């Protein structure tokens, strides 16, 4: 009931004409932000030249800061900006929710958001979530990611690529892309990508930085470089039995610009359902050419149970660093199936 009341209050709040709501404006990061609640927005200089924006929330009604980009009223796919916001997350000490909303029209307006990303104070698994509205069907779709919240300063980033996909990042780590939606009709990329809402829900929120661009989203400099991996090399179906004892071989493949055995920091590797699982067991000291391209590849073995796979998973992920400190990531298909137990005993009884 509490969630329903809050949702209704939020929707009604957003449908009131903008001029009737705007009670206070503050300039932060060269942008004039509007807030519907008098005293609800504050800019504080924490050190010389460094200012934070705070949203003071003393009730269950969300406090929102709006940025209506009048100059971007015709942002189409060829010139859609990227947006990046940093914030302080007080999790798990304070029940809080911090969100970045992107609107199809300058908020508040009767039309709903096009896409949003953030945290949800009432999420049981405390992960980041992504949500959007399909303007064709007026339905709302929500994706709960596997990225766990943690305290401290974090950066959320949304941007469109040249192929029209919208990508989401947390702390320069790729989180999700609209290319991953099975039903493409469920998502339409925002035509207006410059109308922004910063929102605090359940508690006050502090935003530490904000920036945006007027072109295709450039990749953050610290993003991981993709490497090719082969889970269970020499196996065609990559079948892995759920919770089976043993190890999973994974080959990190070399290419003409990348020598896996000499360039990978072997202590940094993690592998499993999300790529963050500390499941490594051992590796082959001498490289082996598993794909017969004349280059030696690095073969690692990871503990099956610690990889965290669930029945039905279709992909496995590997993360790590090079010896020079550059991030790497790779993915390959898997088939996680339930282990059938006592098959021999039942056959013997028959």
What does this protein structure show overall?
With 350 residues, the protein is mainly beta. It folds into 2 domains: 211 residues, Jelly Rolls (Sandwich); 113 residues, Immunoglobulin-like, CATH 2.60.40. 8% of the residues lie in helices and 43% in strands. The strands form 5 sheets. An 8-stranded antiparallel β-sheet has the order 1-2-5-14-7-8-9-10, with no helix packed on it.
Q: Give average pLDDT, whole number.
A: 76
CATH architecture of the largest domain: Sandwich
Q: What is the C-level CATH assignment of the largest domain?
A: Mainly Beta
Radius of gyration: 24 Å
What CATH calls the topology of the largest domain is: Jelly Rolls
Number of β-strand runs? 25
Strand-pairing-aware structural class: mainly beta
User: What is the topology, as strand order, of the major beta sheet?
Assistant: 1-2-5-14-7-8-9-10
- N/C terminus separation: 55 Å
Number of helices: 4
Domain count: 2
Major pleated sheet: 8 strands, antiparallel
- The stretches of 5 or more residues where confidence is low (pLDDT under 50) are 1-21, 72-80, 343-350
The H/E string reads HHEEEEEEEEEEEEEEEEEEEHEEEEEEH
How is the secondary structure organized here?
Layout: H1 2-15, H2 18-21, E1 24-28, E2 31-35, E3 41-47, E4 50-55, E5 63-67, E6 83-89, E7 97-103, E8 113-118, E9 127-134, E10 139-148, E11 152-160, E12 166-170, E13 173-177, E14 195-201, E15 205-212, E16 225-226, E17 229-231, E18 239-241, E19 247-252, H3 260-263, E20 264-272, E21 280-283, E22 298-303, E23 315-322, E24 327-333, E25 335-337, H4 343-349
Parallel strand pairs: 16-24, 18-25
Antiparallel strand pairs: 1-2, 2-5, 3-4, 4-15, 5-14, 6-11, 6-15, 7-8, 7-14, 8-9, 9-10, 11-12, 12-13, 17-19, 19-22, 20-23, 21-22, 23-24
């Amino acid at each position: 009931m509490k969630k329903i009341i809050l949702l209704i209050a939020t929707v009604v709040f957003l449908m009131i004409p903008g001029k009737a709501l705007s009670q206070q404006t503050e300039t932060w990061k060269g942008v004039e932000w509007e807030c519907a609640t008098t005293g609800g927005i504050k800019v504080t200089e924490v050190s010389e030249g460094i200012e934070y924006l705070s949203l003071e929330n003393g009730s269950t009604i969300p406090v929102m800061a709006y940025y209506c980009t009048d100059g971007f009223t015709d942002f189409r796919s060829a010139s859609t900006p990227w947006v990046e916001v940093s914030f302080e997350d007080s999790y798990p000490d304070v029940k809080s929710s911090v969100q970045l909303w992107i609107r199809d029209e300058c908020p508040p307006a009767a039309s709903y958001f096009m896409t949003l990303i953030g945290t949800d104070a009432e999420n049981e698994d405390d992960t980041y979530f992504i949500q959007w509205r399909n303007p064709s069907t007026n339905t709302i779709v929500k994706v709960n990611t596997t990225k766990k919240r943690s305290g401290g300063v974090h950066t959320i980033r949304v941007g469109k690529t040249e192929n029209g996909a919208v990508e989401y990042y947390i702390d320069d780590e790729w989180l999700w892309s609209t290319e991953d939606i099975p039903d493409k009709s469920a998502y339409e990329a925002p035509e207006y990508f410059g109308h922004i809402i910063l929102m605090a829900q359940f508690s006050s929120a502090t935003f530490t930085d904000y920036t945006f661009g007027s072109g295709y989203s450039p990749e953050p400099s610290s993003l991981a470089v993709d490497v090719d991996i082969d889970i269970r090399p020499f196996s065609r179906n990559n079948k892995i039995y759920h919770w089976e004892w043993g190890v999973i071989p994974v080959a990190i493949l070399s290419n003409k610009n990348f020598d896996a055995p000499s360039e990978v920091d072997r202590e940094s590797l993690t592998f499993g359902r999300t790529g963050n699982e500390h499941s490594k067991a051992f590796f082959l000291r001498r490289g082996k050419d598993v794909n017969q391209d004349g280059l030696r590849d690095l073969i690692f073995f990871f503990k099956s149970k610690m990889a965290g796979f669930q029945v039905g998973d279709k992909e496995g992920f590997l993360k790590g660093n090079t010896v020079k400190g550059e991030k790497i990531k790779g993915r390959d298909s898997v088939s996680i199936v339930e282990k059938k137990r006592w098959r021999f005993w039942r056959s013997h009884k028959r």
